[in-house]
Amino acid sequence: MGDNITAPVQYWSQPLDNLLAAMQSTPGGLSTADARQRLEQFGPNLSMAGASLFLPFLPMLPMQILLTNFLTDFPAMTIANDSVDRELVERPRRWNIQFIRDFMVTFGLASSVFDYLTFGTLLLVLRATADQFRTGWFLESVLTELLILLVIRTRRPFFKSRPGRYLLMATLIVAGVTVVLPYSPLNGLLGFISLSLPVLLILGAITVLYITSSELVKKAFYRRVQI
């Protein structure tokens, strides 16, 4: 009788042990996924709403918005298998709604600042047409969202924390596809236009400045906020 009861308990407890071990190793990944989702909802939406107030054309076409979301969601699907820094799993952590709110506002505002910098550069410095503007913002939006995911997944400087293999592969693939799209035969269908090398270099400089600033914001944020 005792053996008959023990056997099912042992059978079901083994998967449970595996699940608990997996959960212990992935809270940082779950936090990254939630933080990334909140940031994507707040920052770009704030930028889009603001841009629509002064632009004489749509900042992005509906198809381009859907494409941006699709491309940036692809690497995010690999977060569950991402590697997690050791210090994030040394002790249990509670789900902190105030932390998520502060994170969303802080990094969302930082994202919007650089979106508006991109808008100003494209319109006032480069005198971009509507198609050039949309193409430039598409490139900047996707590339910065890919890179900011590598920044917010760790409290360390992002180059000192190795991402999971699938996250890194997905990020590189999507970045490559993003850069190629405006120069592919699909550019007309998607409403894109080829950009000159100087424009690409300026957008690249803004992207580097954004990631550098985000690292500084992250350092100040975690010095102030503890969870």
The CATH superfamily bears the name Calcium-transporting ATPase, transmembrane domain
Which residue ranges are poorly predicted, with pLDDT under 50 across at least 5 consecutive positions?
1-30
Fraction of residues in β-strands: under 5%
Helix and strand element order: HHHHHHHH
The profile of the biggest β sheet is: none
Rounded to an integer in angstroms, the radius of gyration calculated over CA atoms is 21 Å
Q: Give the N-to-C terminal Cα separation.
A: 48 Å
CATH class: Mainly Alpha
Describe this structure in words.
The model is unreliable at 1-30 (pLDDT under 50). The chain has a single domain, classed as Calcium-transporting ATPase, transmembrane domain (Up-down Bundle). With 227 residues, it is mainly alpha-helical. Helices cover 74% and strands 0% of the residues. The relative contact order is 0.14. The chain has helices at 2-25, 27-54, 62-76, 97-125, 130-152, 165-180, 187-190, 197-224. The radius of gyration is 21 Å and the shape is globular.
